[in-house]
Amino acid sequence: MTPRVLSGIQPSGNLHIGNYLGALGNWVKMQHDYESIFCIVDLHAITVYQKPEELRAKVREIAALFLAAGIDPQHSRIVVQSTVAAHSELAWLLTCVTPMGWLERMTQFKAKAAAQESVGDGLFQYPVLMAADILLYQANIVPVGEDQMQHLELARDIAQRFNSLYGETFTMPATRLPLVGARVMGLDDPTAKMSKSATGSGHAVALLDPPATIKKTIMRATTDSNPGVDFETMGPGVQNLLNIFQAFSDWTNDQMKAHFTGMRYGDLKKQVTEMTISKLEPIQKRYAEIVADPGYLEGIIRAGADAVRPTADATVRLVKERMGIYTETA
Ligand code: TRP
What we know:
The protein is mainly α and 330 residues long. The protein has helices at residues 17-30, 42-45, 52-69, 86-95, 100-104, 107-114, 121-136, 149-166, 211-219, 236-249, 253-260, 265-291, 294-323, and strands spanning 4-9, 35-40, 77-80.
């Protein structure tokens, strides 16, 4: 059987080159080797307050960016989480088998809760909803970054607990991920991963940034005090710029070394800028075409939901049966 891949992305903040090189670009490359479901998780986004109009626009923007980046809607499913009610329904059912202690250990919850004046219960339940996303489709592979590994582990723990309480029901998603992308760091602070929620203007290159902005951001990136590129002693900022170039170009390590050794940082940044602009240009062009036709985009989102709903509903029905929840027998 073709393994099923599922991943999710929150419709908040701006998708950036870290998302592209670390996740989306990879999904595009490997989508035809798998049965793929890519979720836009709006129900996760509202675990912290979102302006309604912005959230509504963001979901469409991300769906359009998925398509613009090369997700093939004939093959892969783009699913807006809230349009398949089974996500919410399974999340509740799983909540009831999830010990609070497991959730209290989640480092992302602790970090996000600390930054919040009032913490919604949804933020606490967040990882259960994520487990529901995954288990609903019996996904085999869940490509996520390091920061989501604890949530993925939790999904496995929940599946295991459910299976042992009610009988074999859920497929265990793998924890070892064959699909690792580049880890792009912040351009202003190369010790932290590039983040969608960081607001500093020099932090990230957004996929929809115009060339002048891309140039400005990259030219201002943090480097180190070496006079030029030295692969032995370079700091994290230079390493990050080289990583970005390599991930876009697919050059080998040898090619990278031969080309960049000794290069001054001004020239390095210029080349990273040109490479980035040349790779984002076609995505931006397709994006503009896609959003010019809202009916097309809505059709893709509807088709994605329609395609996966039978599987999702079947899982919820099975889970309910196992738990003794009322289901019609006919
Ligand atoms: N929590 C993930 C993140 O913030 C997003 C997510 C939600 C997800 N549901 C998922 C990722 C299911 C993978 C699978 O990055």
